[in-house]
Structures are given as structure tokens and as C-alpha cells.
Design a protein that fits this description.
Layout lengths: L1 E4 L5 H10 L4 E4 L13 E4 L6 H6 L5 E4 L9 H7 L2 E3 L6 H16 L2 H10 L15 E5 L3 H11 L4 E6 L10 E4 L3 H4 L5 E4 L13 H6 L5 E4 L8 H9 L5 E4 L19 E3 L10 H17 L16
Parallel strand pairs: 1-2, 1-3, 3-4, 4-5, 6-7, 6-9, 7-8, 9-10, 10-11, 11-12
Keywords: NAD, Oxidoreductase
Pfam families: 2-Hacid_dh (PF00389), 2-Hacid_dh_C (PF02826)
Family: Belongs to the D-isomer specific 2-hydroxyacid dehydrogenase family.
């Protein structure tokens, strides 16, 4: 059995795999085009390097393990046509992304950006009194593992959490849950809108200008999901017209964000360079999931964890 890794991993993990699976031929590369793919059974990738042409060449390919959560960059149709099993690293983003959300909200409410600015200016005087996260209301759009962890942390600060998912089914750490179709009615009641939606046909460009007009003028909009959930121009217009207080944006339509983008200059916008889910523990967590599945695979068990429904996109 040949298994191809298309991203760098630590030498210690390579050694661990070699010792645990002596009959498996592990191949490592950072350029998939340099590898003969004909007899590769498993490909472990961290994202968009796998193309339909690679799937076509990999005639023995049976499983693609994605060391990330999003699978929208994969050649979905080619994988579906071959009925190739795809798993992801669902759950690895939960802790760092939830911490990022909480950090941004606490920073904004407790006035940390102003503290740093006044420190640089050696200015003692406050511009305005800081606020509190305590007893606010957050709408968490997307109630999977990440949304649940965000809800858990916010509830520790006495925040009322409203989850939002397709059907409105009850979700952990949410005081209530609403269906996606009811989001417009809920927006005028909430202080924070936290979007962690994946990129799917159903969620693409889901936020329209009327959504921002429905939000409180004091609301914070945070997109730590995919960039194609909202058009950048809609957020820009909302910020420029003070329809919302602040936006924290971790994803953009074009990345890296161009230097001439007005987002860089807006005082009521925080540009986060696609880093909210990053952590020095990220790869280790992904490889732990891969190891669980690999142990099953080698034993002939294809009931792997984190299987992706390619038709749904998650």
C-alpha cells in the first residue's frame, strides 16, 4: 500500500508512521506533480493542490484525507465519479477558532485597540468608556463543533447564545436555535453576528444588504467562516454607512487581501489574515485524526471518522 503526503510533516511523525505501519510505503512531497500517482491508494493533502487531473492519473486511489476542514477546493466531481472516500479534519479548528472569536469580542468591548494606540502615543486619557460582553446576545450562524465551542465559551461570560442552522434543530451550548430562513427576523435583537458557515451552494453569498440594514447600529459582524458567505462590497457599504459598529473579517473574496483594499484603512474593521483557526497544535491534531483512520484502513475497516458528504460539501 502506498500513501502520499503532499505537505510537510515533522520527521518524528514520519518515524512514528514507519514504526507503526512497517508494511506501508509512505511517500512525502510538497509538489504532487513530481510524483507518479498510478499506484497511490491514499493521498493526504492540506487543501487545493489536488486537481481532477491528479485523480484521473491515480487509478488506484481509494481515499483522500484532508488535513483541514473545508473541502471546497477539492475536485469534487472527479472524486464523486470514482466514489473515492474523502475524510477531513473536522474538530481541529474548534479550540483556536473559538478562542479567536472570544479574543476579538473581549478586545473590542474592553477597548484594547485604544489602549495599544494610546500607549504608543504616551497618552493617558480615555476616549470613551469600555463596554462588556456580559449579558449581550450572540447569533452564531453555524452550529457544528466550532459553533458549539464558541457558544460554550460565550455562555461562561453570561452571553445569550442563539444558534442558527439549516433546520433549526437544537444544538449544544445554544439557549435557542433558529432555522437559517429566520435569520433576518432575529438580526435586530442581537449584539454579535458570528458567521462560521462553510462554503456550500446553499450558503454562498447568503448575507445580503438587507441583513446588514436589519442589524443594530451597535452590532459587531464577524466572519470566521468562508469568504464567499458575503460580498465584500456589502460589508464595506455597511461599515461606511455605520449600519453596524464593527466588522471582524478573517476571510475575503480575494486572498491575500490587496494592499489597496479599503478594508485596511477603515477604523471600524479588523482585518484578520485568514488566521483565526491557526495554531501551533493544528497539524498535530490533524495527524491524530489521520492516525485513527489509518489504523482502521490498514485493518480493512473503511468505517472512517469524519467522512465528508461531497454532495453537501461537508
Amino acid at each position: 500500500m502506498k500513501i502520499l503526503f503532499t505537505f510537510k510533516i515533522k520527521t518524528s511523525f514520519k518515524q512514528q508512521l514507519k514504526e507503526k505501519y512497517p508494511n506501508v510505503d509512505f511517500i512525502y512531497t510538497t509538489n504532487i506533480d513530481e510524483v507518479a500517482l498510478g499506484d497511490i491508494e491514499v493521498i493526504v493533502t492540506d487543501g487545493g493542490d489536488l486537481k481532477s487531473g491528479h485523480v484521473e492519473k491515480a487509478t488506484e486511489l481509494k481515499w483522500v484525507m484532508v488535513a483541514a476542514v473545508g473541502v471546497d477546493t477539492l475536485p469534487i466531481e472527479a472524486l464523486q465519479a470514482r466514489k473515492i472516500l474523502v475524510t477531513n479534519s473536522h474538530g481541529v479548528h474548534k479550540m483556536p477558532l473559538a478562542e479567536s472569536v472570544l479574543a476579538h469580542l473581549l478586545s473590542l468591548e474592553r477597548g484594547l485597540p485604544g489602549i495599544y494606540k494610546r500607549e504608543a502615543e504616551k497618552n493617558w486619557e480615555l476616549d470613551s468608556l469600555p463596554g462588556e460582553v456580559n449579558h449581550s446576545t450572540a447569533l452564531i450562524v453555524g452550529t457544528g463543533a466550532i459553533g458549539g465551542e464558541i457558544g460554550r465559551l460565550l455562555q461562561a461570560f453570561h452571553v445569550r447564545t442563539i444558534g442558527c442552522n439549516r433546520s433549526g434543530h437544537a444544538s449544544p451550548h445554544m439557549n435557542e436555535t433558529i432555522p437559517l430562513d429566520d435569520i433576518l427576523e432575529e438580526l435586530p435583537q442581537v449584539d454579535y453576528v458570528i458567521s462560521i458557515l462553510p462554503s456550500t451552494p446553499q450558503t454562498r453569498w447568503i448575507y445580503q444588504p438587507e441583513h446588514f440594514r436589519a442589524m443594530k447600529e451597535t452590532a459587531v459582524f464577524m466572519n470566521v467562516g468562508r469568504g464567499d458567505a458575503v460580498k465584500e462590497q456589502y460589508v464595506l457599504d455597511a461599515l461606511k454607512h455605520n449600519e453596524i459598529r464593527h466588522a471582524v473579517l478573517d476571510f475575503f473574496e480575494t486572498e491575500p487581501l490587496p494592499k489597496d483594499s479599503p478594508f485596511w484603512e477603515l477604523p471600524n474593521c479588523t482585518v484578520s489574515p485568514h488566521m483565526s483557526s491557526l495554531s501551533d497544535q493544528y497539524i498535530e491534531r490533524s495527524l491524530d485524526i489521520m492516525d485513527i483512520n489509518l489504523e482502521k484502513w490498514v485493518a480493512g475497516d473503511q468505517d472512517l471518522i469524519n467522512q465528508v458528504d461531497l454532495a453537501k460539501g461537508y
